């Protein structure tokens, strides 16, 4: 700037001092705009993660509450099964449809509706006077979770870009993993505190204040988005009916079959599921060829990368749900720990998860660009899980039935660390390949395979675990059964590692 320009600028400022007052705030506003944008995105992510955390937590926390619930409500074994299964079954059957509803009517709107249903149903669960009311409330909880779950992935995919999107998926994985790992501890603490004499009911009522605050913030914090041309589309009602029936026919026998000895109806249900999935695929292709609006556009699966990611996801989640189940059984029945102390053992997994989920993004940048880096980060995670589970097997063999559980901590930390490296990159690898107009449907598919993979894993591990346990279980038998289950889970982790080596694009 020349001396003349400086003098002119000074004269203008002296002549019109009010202008300075106007210019300074404008300059500050411009400087603070990136910060304001970052704050807005952080608030968006926080509201979305509240839903992720609560809906995942309710899968795990209910197991801790079951013994007290059964005593308080005089629930039958069948009712107890449905208290657990009703939620997962409803989520599995509804998420694909919910993802499409988000594409059509607005993802924020569907997220808010799901949050409202989930929060109200949580209150109903906490106040349920009978087992039947609790089962019905759990089903409504599942509907709410199904509505909001796919919107979370879809909104992250559309509201964040580049490195911010990767960080958002990392945070998503962190929230989900923490809810899974610490669910049993949170439930144990709530029951042990017995606040206001609520006991097991507090495991459900804890959702109410969190859900209410999130619901208030949704209009302010969460941007609205729809699929391109959504206003001109109609919901594929026959597709909804077919895929929902197919998912129920798949998941229901997986939930009930083991306890009932796999009667004939379970195999007929599996056969019906195959037919329904085939009919659904044919019908979706027909709608797409006619340029109509299928529930799931077959174009999604023309991307080999997306298909591979979905296969890796379903195998990975087969291991996750089943591990937490048999570990909880081993700790609480085989080793005689109460819910609180068993939950404390789970914290070792949480520590490992926290340590690596924070650095997964940096590791991805070192291992490769784009999807290749994400796949290899997840592969490192699943390989670490396999090694840690082998370490756990060796530790149990060396320490015996009554050895200190402190010896298992290194293996548990390693398993959690592997989870922290795998979950985020797996989700990002699937959703990152999807066109914006397909994000709702794709997130529904991803959420579905998590639920179905978990159900399949629990069914398969149940066969192995209970066969090894025998008819007269002792502490030694529980150790043997847990070890047998771990051997299968090592194979699952290795299988995911191998599958991810084919992801080269």
Question: Could you state the CATH homologous superfamily of the largest domain?
Answer: MFS general substrate transporter like domains
Q: Report the biggest beta sheet as strand number plus sense, adding barrel if it closes.
A: none
CATH topology category name of the largest domain: Growth Hormone, Chain: A
Strand content: under 5%
Give the helix proportion (percent range). over 70%
Please give the CATH architecture of the largest domain. Answer: Up-down Bundle
Element pattern in H and E: HHHHHHHHHHHHHHHHH
Key phrases:
505 residues, mainly alpha, Growth Hormone, Chain: A, 17 helices
Protein described:
With 505 residues, this protein is mostly helical. It has 2 domains: 43-224, Growth Hormone, Chain: A, CATH 1.20.1250.20; 300-505, Up-down Bundle (Growth Hormone, Chain: A). Helix content is 83%, strand content 0%. It has 17 helices and no strands. Helix 6 (162-193) runs antiparallel to helix 12 (339-357). The longest helix has 57 residues, at 17-73. It is globular, with a radius of gyration of 25 Å. The protein starts with a helix and ends in a 5-residue tail after the last helix.
């Amino acid at each position: 700037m020349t001396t003349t320009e400086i003098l002119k600028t000074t004269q203008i400022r002296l002549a019109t001092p009010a202008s300075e007052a106007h210019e300074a705030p404008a300059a500050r506003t411009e400087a603070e705009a990136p910060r304001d944008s970052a704050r807005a995105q952080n608030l968006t992510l926080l509201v979305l993660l509240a839903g992720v955390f609560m809906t995942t937590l309710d899968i795990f926390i209910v197991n801790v509450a079951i013994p007290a619930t059964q005593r308080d409500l005089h629930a039958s074994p069948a009712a107890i099964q449905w208290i657990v299964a009703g939620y997962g079954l409803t989520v599995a059957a509804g998420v694909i449809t919910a993802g499409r509803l988000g594409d059509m009517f607005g993802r924020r709107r569907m997220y808010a509706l799901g949050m409202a249903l989930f929060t109200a149903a949580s209150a109903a669960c906490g106040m349920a006077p009978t087992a039947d009311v609790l089962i019905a409330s759990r089903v409504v909880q599942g509907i709410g979770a199904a509505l909001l779950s796919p919107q979370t992935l879809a909104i992250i995919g559309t509201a964040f870009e580049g490195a911010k999107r990767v960080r958002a998926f990392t945070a998503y994985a962190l929230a989900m993993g923490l809810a899974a790992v610490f669910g049993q501890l949170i439930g144990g603490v709530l029951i042990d505190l017995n606040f206001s004499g609520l006991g097991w009911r507090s495991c459900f009522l804890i959702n109410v204040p969190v859900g209410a605050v999130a619901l208030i913030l949704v209009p302010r914090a969460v941007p609205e988005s729809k699929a391109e041309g959504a206003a001109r589309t109609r919901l594929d009602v026959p597709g909804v009916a077919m895929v929902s029936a197919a998912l129920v026919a798949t998941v229901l026998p997986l939930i009930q079959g083991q306890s009932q000895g796999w009667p004939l109806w379970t195999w007929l249900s599996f056969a019906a599921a195959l037919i329904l999935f085939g009919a659904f695929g044919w019908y979706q292709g027909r709608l797409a060829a006619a340029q109509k609006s299928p529930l799931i556009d077959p174009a999604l699966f023309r991307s080999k990368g997306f298909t591979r990611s979905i296969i890796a996801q379903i195998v990975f989640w087969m291991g996750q749900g089943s591990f937490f189940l048999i570990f909880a059984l081993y700790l609480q029945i085989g080793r005689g720990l109460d819910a609180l102390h068993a939950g404390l053992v789970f914290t070792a997994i949480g520590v490992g998860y926290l340590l690596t989920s924070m650095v997964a993004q940096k590791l991805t940048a070192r291992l490769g660009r784009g999807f290749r880096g994400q796949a290899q980060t997840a592969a490192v995670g699943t390989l670490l899980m396999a090694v840690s589970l082998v370490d756990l097997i060796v530790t149990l063999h060396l320490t015996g039935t009554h050895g200190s559980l402190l010896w298992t901590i290194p293996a548990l930390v390693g398993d959690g660390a592997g989870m922290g490296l795998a979950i985020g990159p797996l989700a990002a690898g699937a959703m990152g390949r999807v066109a914006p107009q397909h994000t709702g449907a794709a997130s529904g598919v991803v959420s579905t395979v998590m639920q179905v993979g978990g159900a399949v894993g629990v069914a398969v591990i149940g066969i192995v675990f209970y066969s090894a346990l025998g008819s007269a279980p002792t502490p030694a038998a529980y150790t043997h059964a847990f070890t047998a289950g771990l051997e299968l889970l090592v194979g699952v982790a290795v299988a995911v590692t191998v599958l991810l080596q084919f992801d080269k694009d």
